[in-house]
Design brief:
7 helices, binds zinc ion, disordered C terminus
């Protein structure tokens, strides 16, 4: 609890230093630090300026709930729209993908359910589902799927994890040049189904390798057996505007220059090292999961 409070306090100190309101939407960074904008801070202790709202519906996607928050970095929104459209083109006539929480308009905490989702780089996406005989079913809920790929929705009907469309979505996300995916949190057994499916299809091995790298079951939270949580990496130029990525920079993600790579150390100098919500020290990407 203490570490969580430290975190919240850090976020507010940080926001006030930059002259950004954490309540009631975003505003422009102040003259004190005019260069900090966009995704500022780490996903579990940061905020968002200049966010863009995902439309309520579009080609191949729809909001899961109007009660959720759907603001993200422009490239996060572009990534989602592109991936959803590609699945819709390849599997026409099927229900859209349902998009859950991204971030609030100005970012910040979406407590009590989410530790991250604060900087416009995280999104929850519902699974694609079918009936047992393959008929289309809108994947609107948090249905838990087991290693056999089966789940029971609220109301008692058995559903199947639609590995075909889910793989198309994962493939489009990791192959996109609109943004670079850093993590896709998903249960280990569902990752296994997806990778097995991709190999059986003969998908390009570099794409399968990317997917295997980013798909991860978080060690410190729910296993993500009822939705995926996608996090995009900070782009090199965003490191200089306050984006603090943590975690790996996979080989296929553009690498920062020395100056860009050093930029987050200024934030550390101002605020001290990042403290994870569990109080175990400098943030690891998995510790900062949901
Ligand atoms: Zn999430």
């Amino acid at each position: 609890m203490r570490a969580a409070r430290v975190h919240v306090a850090r976020a507010f100190v940080f926001a006030s230093m930059l002259g950004v309101s954490m309540v009631g939407g975003c505003s422009m960074p102040s003259a004190i630090a005019p260069s900090y904008r966009g995704s500022v801070g780490v996903p579990h202790a940061g905020f968002l300026t200049d966010g863009v709202e995902l439309p309520k519906e579009g080609k191949g996607f729809r909001w899961k709930s109007a009660a959720d928050h759907h603001y993200g970095l422009p490239r996060m929104i572009g990534l989602l729209e592109g991936a959803a459209a590609s699945v819709a083109e390849l599997r026409p006539g099927m229900p859209p993908v349902y998009v859950g929480e991204i971030s609030a308009k100005g970012g910040g905490a979406l407590l009590p359910k989410h530790r991250s989702h604060r900087t416009g780089r995280d999104v929850d996406v519902m699974f694609f589902t079918t009936t047992l005989d393959g008929a289309k079913v809108p994947g609107t809920g948090f249905t838990v799927f087991g290693p056999d790929g089966l789940g029971v929705e609220a109301g008692g009907r058995f559903l199947r994890f639609d590995v075909d469309r889910e793989w198309l979505l994962i493939k489009s996300l990791v192959a996109s040049d609109k943004a670079h995916v850093q993590w896709i949190f998903i249960a280990r057994w569902l990752e296994a189904l997806l990778v097995e499916h991709a190999i059986a299809l003969g998908e390009p091995s570099p794409i399968i390798a990317r997917a295997e790298q980013v798909m991860q079951q978080p060690g410190d939270s729910l296993p993500h057996d009822d939705h995926i949580h996608v996090r995009i990496a900070c782009e090199p130029d965003e490191l200089a505007t306050g984006c603090d990525g943590g975690g790996p920079r996979w080989a296929w993600i553009p690498q920062p220059t020395k100056i860009e790579a050093d930029a987050p150390t200024l934030l550390e100098a101002l605020l001290g090292p990042s403290v994870t919500p569990d109080g175990k020290g400098v943030a690891s990407p998995v510790a900062a999961s949901p």
